[in-house]
Amino acid sequence: MAGAISTGTHGTGITLGNLATQVIGLKFTAADGTQVVASSSENPTLLEGGRTARSSSSGFRTRIRY
Length: 66
Ligand SMILES: Cc1cc2nc3c(=O)[nH]c(=O)nc-3n(C[C@H](O)[C@H](O)[C@H](O)COP(=O)(O)OP(=O)(O)OC[C@H]3O[C@@H](n4cnc5c(N)ncnc54)[C@H](O)[C@@H]3O)c2cc1C
Prior knowledge:
Radius of gyration: 11 Å
Distance between the termini: 11 Å
Bound molecules: flavin-adenine dinucleotide
CATH architecture: 2-Layer Sandwich
CATH topology: Uridine Diphospho-n-acetylenolpyruvylglucosamine Reductase, domain 3
Low-confidence stretches: none
Strand content: 15-25%
Number of helices: 3
CATH class: Alpha Beta
Shape: globular
Strand order of the largest sheet: 2-1-3
Largest sheet: 3 strands, antiparallel
Helix content: 10-25%
Order of helices and strands: HEEHHE
């Protein structure tokens, strides 16, 4: 799932977004081991950007919530 949301896989048009648009929460582990949670109430900017960001820019996704 992490790979599929990273690559913006399988959108079907303006009314039904790709898999990344359905994500409501993410948990990242950074290179230094720090863990960061992103949701609409906690780090919302990271949630928006982190949906399709690759592992090098935001950290490794360890949890995805739909
Ligand atoms: C034959 C074929 C047909 C396809 N047809 C379509 C199609 O019609 N439409 C479409 O949209 N796509 C299509 N794809 C693309 C494919 O669906 C996606 O590339 C795939 O779903 C990505 O998932 P994966 O698990 O293989 O990702 P991976 O290759 O494992 O990862 C992709 C990228 O995601 C990042 N990543 C992976 N895991 C993490 C993590 N835990 N944390 C942070 N970053 C991470 C990495 O940067 C990695 O390079 C097709 C692919 C193939 C092979």
